[in-house]
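ZP: hey, is the 1,6-di-O-phosphono-beta-D-fructofuranose complex queued? I don't see it on the tracker
AM: it wasn't, my bad. submitting now with these inputs:
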Amino acid sequence: MTELSPLQKARLKFKPVLPATLAAGITNLSLIEGNATESVADQEQIQKLFPNTYGKPMVTFEGTASTTTFETKNVGVILSGGQAPGGHNVVAGIYDALKQANPENKLYGFLGGPAGIIDGKYIELTDEIIDAYRNTGGFDIIGSGRTKLETEEQFQSSWENCKKLNITGIVIIGGDDSNTNAAMLAEWFKSKNAGIQVIGCPKTIDGDLKNSQIEISFGFDTATKTYSELVGNIQRDVNSAKKYWHFIKLMGRSATHVGLEVALQTQPNITLISEEVEQKSMSLSQIVDYMADIIVKRSKLGKNFGVALIPEGLIEFVPEMKAMIQNLNDLMPTLEEDPNFTQLTSGVEKEAVIEKRLKAENAAVFRSLPAMIKAQLLMDRDPHGNVQVSKIETEKLLIEMLKIKLYQMKQEGVYTGKFSDQSHFFGYEGRCAFPSNFDSNYCYALGYNAFALIQFGLTGYLSSVRDLTKAPQDWIAGGVPLTMMMNMERRHGQMKPVIQKALVKLDGPVFKKLEANREKWALEDHYVFPGAIQYFGPSEVADITTQTLKLEHEASLSLV
Ligand code: FBP
């Protein structure tokens, strides 16, 4: 164990607040069943693929005076996908509920993500281990990974490994892809009458695992506050030195929830929203024109500086790029099995083959890109078939295109300013931060609730804690069937059942707030400096949630 910082020592003592129903204790809960559910789309196909877990009802918990005694139960937990602040508290919540239910119960942590259950790599979690990780960031308690659980052999070996440890419940803590894994595993175990339940927990800083029952995934609150602190600091620097344009790419994969939230917290001069780019069918050069226009206008006001936020997944939303990437995604699995391609050692030779095999219009787009971006687009997909957008330097691509555009404008005499750029990518900086009070409480409740779902015999559910703009004791705990969130999507060139990603709604209140203000923020300076996350102190500073959560909550109330 490394030496503890003063903050870590203090955070280890923080006691998360549970929703009042759960605080009644795991032995004093009753389960209320709601209506049967349907998948968000492709109902017939999803039902066919998930005959044993499809259509289950939503559930909520209520506290009860009567006490239930439970048989002993061993549970396995998996941290899956990218890190998100609060993962350790989910594990601690499961652990505390499980030990409260019966001190003989055991919690096993599978190591390194889903690969741990397949390979039988695990540790038994104890008081000592759990206590050392309470309210800390990171997933290092058991590690994480991105292995996709989908083959018969993987399911079979997972079953064997569970049998060895007498595990009858598994909690998978992950994003949309990892919870798709959870749904697949739950269905498979059920089809074999294996007697093993699977429950998911909504994790991802991206904020794209949400719907009417899951208000936000954990980690989004802390990560966006961390990035907002950094963006705010840069804005102070910009405002002091008045000499650079900063281009900041923000993590968040496909959806722009992170970028939008950070924009509302900091009010920069330019915020690109991928979903808007797609809706307006904007080409790369139109995006550059939009940015150049603001740079030129600011320059005329004597401001040769500014801050621009760029979403990580932008490139996949530019229609011409999207079509090209889709074509590339379908092509790559074939090429990777072709020795004539794999034997090629130079990138240039590979690119030439790819250009020949892409459709003509897509080949033209590919050819037009700088070498750096071409190489980044050809990097390995993740195990779920996603392009690794974190490795594509969109911010640098835009800067290069802007330089050309501004040079042309200078030649035409419409721009006389000075353009000096700095680029940043904020992602990993926020994924393992100490969880905010919100994420500490939310995660602990999600974990505690996940064990309650197992204890009540449910499988194929996502742990759901709602009403998150209220105080934690007023949150509502329950579960949502995973199949309810699924649809069919193209992955690795084939249609597969996956949990639907929630993208930014352009008619939603969060985007509308940006839209109403961005012109003003572009030219006048309305920078906000949020500062660091506060863990102690007045509630209006230490317990505030995100603007996204607040605005979406207000909008849903106005519909009631
Ligand atoms: P999850 O969906 O697994 O939570 O991933 C979140 C994320 O941080 C994305 O924002 C980012 O694109 C990706 O992980 C980076 O992946 P990696 O950690 O493999 O570099």
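AM: back. The mean pLDDT is 94.
ZP: great, adding it to the tracker
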